[in-house]
Request: fold
Amino acid sequence: MQPHKILMLGKARKVSGRGEAVAANYAFGPAEDDAIIKHRLLTRTTTTRGEPPLKKLQKKFTTFVSEIEKQEDNYNDCEKLAKAFLQELATFEIPLLKSKAIVDANIREKENFNELKDEINRQILQAQADIEDLKKQLEESKIERQHKEECEAIRKLIALQPPRSETQKLITELEKEIMALDAENTAGSRLLELRKKQFALLLHVVDELQNTIEEEQKNLIEEMRAAPEELKNGIEDASGGSEAMAVD
Reply:
């Protein structure tokens, strides 16, 4: 890490420390909280006891720079201070490397989680599709079962009926009875037609007989009316003859 960057981090830590003291009574949003937590993790101001590592590193660097700026033959001292600074820098970098490893692990874990989330979402969609297919299959199964129940009911009704041979025999007998009834009906119709003709002839004969009787009655009445006249005429004729004989 370069010295000027170390000094800038120290100044930033001091400024942020004053800002935190001023804004201690105010609520921060998620973005501000994340920035503060990130800064504290980088500077390790809350993760160790005693003097913060960054401040110790800054002191080492300041001591080293001050020793270099002296116009003296202090090469050994500068070398010692440089080694001490590099050692402190290495000590400071180890937690950073660990934090970076943790961050990388978290990133990989996040990627794995996102992949797992996508896989779970895919499985959820597949499960929903399977559920819809199962619903359709259930409806089809219900319809098929209903058809089977209807077929079973029809089969039971058919089983209750007599065998086909008996049914065919019964049908043949009924057809014979129907044919006999048709023949009887035809014979009855012919007989009825004959009886109608005979009755019509009988009525005609009765009518003729009645007419004949009436004619005979009329003739008899006329004869009965004509008989007294003839009798009277016969009597008169007889009387005339007797008188003629008497005269003689």
Observations:
- The radius of gyration is 73 Å.
- Helices lie at 3-22, 30-43, 53-69, 75-160, 164-247.
- The longest helix spans residues 75-160.
- The CA atoms of residues 72 and 78 lie 11 Å apart.
